[in-house]
Design goal:
The chain is of the alpha/beta class and 284 residues long. The protein is built from ten helices and ten strands. The longest helix is centred in the middle third of the chain and has 17 residues. InterPro entries: Luciferase-like_dom, Luciferase-like_sf, SsuD_RutA_monooxygenase.
Length: 284
């Protein structure tokens, strides 16, 4: 199982200039991927910006969005953004997509929080059309340079439509950031739906978790704040699932290895750059 690390781009009031240094340190430490979190209505750094910065600051580590909220974006605009990030990285980006569950993230007029599943299905076709170099409606030219590749897609979500989307249009599935025992059935279902659709091989399965190896209390408070819109009980549940300390992190790694996932992304809960080295020492 590969082990990646998240960027601190959605830590409240993150110091933006830590992101390139974090990306460089993560690559040097040997993590498999560097990941972003996606949210609009929160005082962090946009995931597309964070990924672009990471692309420029590194040369070989994978890049992945976990998860970018597809339906909050105009499809052609997002397709162009993603193509550019992937190209400047040398083809290292995997686009993880979700629907979004917080109404305040839908800030573009005409792109509200209703009908997001059907909209994402249409948008996927638009992304691929743009990446193939087809001219978008109303444009005089293609939106991307010739030779742009089709960026691989992963999907998150727990609704049946999300798993169907994986089997129909994805490379794999990203599970929610929850305890391994709770997420295991979702990975099993992704495999089942993939096989039933007649896809060859197996879906690429990505697990998510949060960690805090320095100031555990501050880390849990940060995760509680980020999930505050879920209510106090929901936010507390997420905060309680933060892997605090080396033993907890290693236990989480072992649990996901036993579930047979392909990659585990451990997201930071503070923007302390020393967390990169602490996590590397614990799990690599």
């Amino acid at each position: 199982m590969k082990i990646g690390i998240g960027l601190p781009n959605q830590i409240r009031d993150v110091r933006p200039d830590v992101i390139p240094a974090w990306a460089r340190a993560s690559e040097e430490a040997g993590f498999s991927s560097i990941a972003s979190l996606g949210r609009i209505a929160y005082p962090g750094v946009m995931d597309t910006v964070a990924l672009a910065v990471a692309a420029g600051a590194t040369s070989s580590v994978g890049l992945i969005s976990t998860l970018l909220l597809g339906p909050v974006w105009p499809a052609v605009l997002l397709a162009k953004e993603i193509a550019g990030i992937d190209a400047v990285s040398g083809g290292r980006l995997t686009l993880g997509l979700g629907l979004g569950g917080r109404p305040d993230d839908f800030v573009v007029e005409g792109l509200g929080p209703r009908g997001t599943g059907k909209r994402l299905d249409r948008d996927i076709e638009t992304y691929r059309s743009v990446w193939r170099g087809e001219i978008p409606p109303g444009c005089d030219n293609p939106a991307v340079p010739d030779g742009t590749r089709e960026v691989p897609l992963l999907f998150g979500g727990m609704a049946q439509a999300s798993f169907d989307r994986v089997a129909r249009a994805g490379r794999g599935y990203i599970g929610p950031a929850a305890a391994p025992a709770l997420v295991g059935p979702a990975f099993d279902h992704a495999r089942t739906v993939w096989k039933a659709a007649g896809r060859e091989g197996t879906p690429y399965l990505v697990a998510l978790g949060y960690f805090a190896l320095g100031d555990e209390d501050r880390g849990r408070a940060g995760v509680y704040d980020y999930y505050g819109s879920a209510g106090s009980d929901g936010a507390r549940a997420r905060a309680d699932e933060v892997c605090g300390g080396v033993d907890a992190v290693r236990a989480t790694v072992k649990a996901y290895e036993e579930l047979g996932v392909d990659e585990l992304i451990l997201n930071p809960s503070v923007d302390d750059l020393d967390e990169v080295a602490r996590l590397a020492d614990a799990v690599l």
